[in-house]
């Protein structure tokens, strides 16, 4: 995952992971891990000051399926938590990264191609809160000069780590079942109102985005990671 | 204003006004008025239950200029207050009206004509919170069946009441100064990135919207109301 890559580049002790839950043993052993409650502003400030934090990567959120099952908690974590993070980053001059989602578009957005800027009328509390995160981040940038960055992730299919919940969880299960056919078909199974083709020309010109893996390399890499499970499933 | 029209139609005692501040004497005398704090959820429930409320018209907000001067309070009133109102309306089966604003579009939206559904990337906390209100209202409608209605108001120039603050306040002042030229020019003075022409075809077909006043009738009506102040200004 991201933490592993960051620690490789910046040093194990320069990247602190946090959660409100105890992680598995191998996470504790891999580097610094502390308690952090996104809804406790003082706790966030304390962590920033005590650890001389300069970058903040904010992943806390209840995703689509989990959020719909608990709208009130999703609103707290995804919106109040966002506000706390924006404030702590602004107050302490941190650089802030918050991911958004392709779900931030919604059924009325153009799907093929899908431009960066278009109609955004999504239909879940998770997606609505991500539109809010995009707008608030831009607002804090213009208003306070906050260095805010955001990327709209598609559903992430991970071979080496389990996702926290939501649609992404379905991907992992589905990817194990369908990988032999075509990875792309999984996307349509889960959310057929989502964008089909992204126009990534802004990302290519603004910050030099380019993909490292084509579809064949992607499938090969996934098979290398999940090989044993996958073969077992296909054997059935 | 709206309260006067509603009381005329539904009866003086069937429309309750509220605020966290004491209103002027003539407001007290015009019908029921009570304390209501949008940030106190229990207080909202109490009012709804004790008064058998069935419709809720939610105007509490810090507008553009005032909001920028106090972002934290604007976020509380405009976003947390919104969430409280959505919850109380859903919980008690109220019909809910919340105005939005033409400021909910932003500098990247098409201006001429301006469609209902398009890019919305506004740049003030007030406008960002109104995009959030639109999306949350739609979400609560789809998720819980809430009867949520929303209208995007332009800057409102009132002849018979003073606005609460924000850009609208500038309008009243400007309208007194510029009314002799052309009322439309005021809009460009205040916010020249705002939409120029609205495509109101959806409103006309969805709920029979039509205008009662053209520009000549509008100016005549305003002059009748503000005649004395206006003549005084022009005399200088």
From TrEMBL, chains A, B:
Give the family, as the similarity comment puts it: Belongs to the NAD(P)-dependent epimerase/dehydratase family.
The signal peptide stretch is none
Residue ranges spanning the membrane: these are: none
* All copies of domain NAD-dependent epimerase/dehydratase, residue ranges: 13-160
Example GO biological process: L-threonine catabolic process
Report the domain of life of the source organism.
Eukaryota
Name of the featured protein: L-threonine 3-dehydrogenase, mitochondrial-like
What is the organism of origin for this protein?
Sinocyclocheilus rhinocerous
Listed GO MF terms:
L-threonine 3-dehydrogenase activity
Checking SUPFAM superfamilies in the record gives: NAD(P)-binding Rossmann-fold domains (SSF51735)
* InterPro entries given in the database record: Epimerase_deHydtase, NAD(P)-bd_dom_sf, NAD(P)_epim/dehydratase
Please give one Pfam family short name. Epimerase
